[in-house]
């Protein structure tokens, strides 16, 4: 992946760097699938 250096006064570039970091750390497509069989089911909880 290509990394760009962004001047701190470039607000668009700074935001794109932040979004890229979030994409790599939080995006569901970049995470392992959870094991749904191990999730606790609470029938009294209103989801």
Query: What is the arithmetic mean of pLDDT?
Result: 77
DSSP helix count? 1
Range of helix content: 25-40%
Low-confidence stretches: none
Q: How big is the Rg?
A: 18 Å
Helix and strand string, N-terminal first? H
The end-to-end span amounts to 39 Å
Oligomerization state of this entry? single chain
Number of strands: 0
Characterise this structure.
The chain has 47 residues and is an all-alpha fold. Helices cover 34% and strands 0% of the residues. It is elongated. The mean pLDDT is 77.
Distinctive features:
47 residues; mainly alpha; 34% helix
Write a brief structural summary.
The chain has 47 residues and is mainly alpha-helical. Helices cover 34% and strands 0% of the residues. The mean pLDDT is 77.
SSE diagram, text form:
Elements: H1 11-26
């Amino acid at each position: 992946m290509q990394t760009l250096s962004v001047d701190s006064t470039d607000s668009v570039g700074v935001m794109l760097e932040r979004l890229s970091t979030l994409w790599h750390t939080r995006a569901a497509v970049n995470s392992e699938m959870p094991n749904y069989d191990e999730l606790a089911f609470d029938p009294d909880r209103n989801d």
